[in-house]
Amino acid sequence: MNYRHAFHAGSFADVHKHALLIGLLRLLQKKETPLCYFDTHAGQGFYDLSRSPAQRTLEFRSGIGPLMKAARVNHPWLEDLLQAVRDLRKAQGNVELYPGSPALAYALQRPQDRSVLMELHPEDVATLKTWAHRRAHVEVHWRDAYEGIPALVPPREHRGLVLIDPPYEEERDDWKSLQSLLQAVIRRWPIGVFALWYPIKQQSQVDRFIKTILQRGMPGFVTCELSIQPTDTPLGLNGSGMMVFNPPWTFADEAARCQQELWSRLSPDGRGRHQVRHWQPSNPD
Ligand code: SAM
Q1: Each residue's pLDDT tens digit, 125-139
Q2: Candidates 5, 117, 127: which one to mutate for ligand 1, based on the most atoms within 8 Å of Cβ?
Q3: Which of 54, 78, 239, 243 could form a disulfide with 49 if both were Cys (CB 3.0 to 4.6 A apart)?
Q4: Distance 176 CA to ligand 1 centre (A)
Q5: How does pLDDT run across 63-82, given as a tens digit for each residue?
Q6: CB of 220 within 8 A of CB of 281?
Q7: In CATH, which of 3.40.50.720, 3.40.50.1010, 3.40.50.150, 1.10.150.240 is domain 5-279?
């Protein structure tokens, strides 16, 4: 396991994923009944952008950097994200912090809700456990997500969201393992909301993945994609995608508005694109 999220914290992809995560939780919280939030690849909980990993890549300059400088953002999910960043920085007395997905979900967590976080890296899980200590209704598992999440769903609350945010390390071949994982967990919890983040390095790789998912007999889903480079630029990460099964009503329309606003902030010269698409198994093209 070589991947460390501290190198990528606050990047355009993080901000995109986190805005959509906030949106999903906000929409699910329109009902009072308890929710369970699962984070299969939780990372550390929060990150210090002044420390060496983030300073070596400076990826936050493509994401939270410019977003924090905007006088105002024109979408409630982005407003919530910026407010969570400000609150974390104020609470910890450090203006360089950026929340990871566990801290963002916890910022929205209501007394009746619960977070279940999984992380495999021993150092990251230790940091995560320190962060979670004394936070109510937060469980941390030092556990392989591929074994852990099928064992833990469905939750006793019945309602909830699973964020699946793997590192896509080549040696593991996450793309292949994820197809089986999705199939297994959706079968076990057909009414759960599942949000899978994926990198867009080459469009053809994403297209192949979506085609395979459509052929596996799973339900329809929505993809939300945002890129700030043409999607085949041979640089590395050109775009960020989220595949959502069982999205709440209105999520797709609201996500399109959120992405429009985010893209205009992060790609002022108009490079890349953003789109929300609905996919049905019978309509692979
Ligand atoms: N979700 C986090 C966020 O948005 O702040 C970022 C997660 S990062 C992309 C992926 C994390 O997965 C890393 O911290 C890595 O250590 C962890 N990881 C890698 N393989 C794993 C596995 N099989 N099970 C659980 N965690 C794993």
Answers
A1: 999 999 999 899 999
A2: 5
A3: 54
A4: 17
A5: 999 999 988 899 999 999 99
A6: yes
A7: 3.40.50.150
